[in-house]
Amino acid sequence: MERLLYAFYGDDFTGSTDVLEQLAEGGVPAILFLRQPDAALLARFPDVRAIGMAGDARSRSPEWMDANLPPAFAALGTSGAPVVHYKTCSTFDSSPQVGSIGRALEIGQAALGGVVPILIGAPHLGRYLLFGNLFATAGGVVHRIDRHPTMARHPVTPMDEADMRLHLARQTGARIALVPIDRIRAGEADADFVKAAENGADAVLFDGMEEADLAAVGQVLLGHRGFAVGSSGVTRALMLGWRAAGIVPLPPELPRALPVERLLVLSGSCSPVTATQIAVARNGGFATIQADVAALSAGSLVEEERLAEAAVEALNGGRVVVHSAEGPLGEDVPAAGATVGAALGRVACQAVLRTGLKRLIFAGGDTSSHGVAQMGIDALSWAAPLERGAPLVRAHAQEPALNGTELVLKGGQMGSAGFFEVVMRGG
Question: I want to staple 369 with a disulfide (CB 3.0 to 4.6 A). Which of 56, 271, 418, 420 is the partner?
């Protein structure tokens, strides 16, 4: 394996494939492991320059993190990569009880040391940080995150605070400084980072509105060996820094995905964006199968088998969506993302094994993380671009029927209204 430039732990699977996309666009070969890699697994990918581990910490408790993140960070820390990145969703949704980014920051700093840079802004995804406040695009309109039509009402981790220092203060006692946009654009990002460290900061949050802001922060990251937290904006910033330093080549010509005749979509997303995609798909000829969420939440194998049989039959027509919801759940409906996602993953696995299906979509962050984990896949590599933040990836598995399967792991907020059709035709 060549000397690694970068290693990351994704707190969900959709965000992890977003990192693969950023690396592929920059000409950096990378592999995403779905379990902690041993020597034999690493040896299968000798030419990569970046490695990742896809996890589901976004939906886990601090106690789970205490048990599971230290060995993951230790493994990545011994890889030789100068930067180990805890990759979060660009909407930074988390809470003290679920997906605590603050707790992950503490664990990573304890394992790897140093003052922790935090970069959330990802202009390529419509995510912006301005004077410490997070904004995100929805329907072409930029909203403060606590007024975002979806994230402010997220069923598990609703975002009711836009100032990310205050948001993190609920999750950690770490002292967090800010390098605001005016200081970044004055060329003082590195000096302010050093000053914050000297003044006792545990972590430093960087604003980011445009790609030039990420490029400036990238120069800071190149001089920082250790642990970093944030969205794929961290990856983008590093890529810009590597390119400016001549470490990576100019962007390569990217391949185009080929069309397929059959597609299965597994959706546990409650996002209005995904609801629109399901409606457009139905109008465009996709069969749609409604899951019994209560039965799946109760662990019903009968319901799983019903969904698998229905999906296999519907694939004779070429295209099908199996979904648990169409839009936000009612306030009296308990969130069950992990259980439903795992069940949909088993349905997907059965469909692939029974039909030889070669391409499928998981829609929803929790659905993707818990669903793919059920499929016996060892690793994922980037295959081709589709739409920003939701690339086509390829599975590497010991099971021949699963090896080479193409997947799209789509966050709830990602994709155009006709995204499912886009995935079928290959862009």
Answer: 56
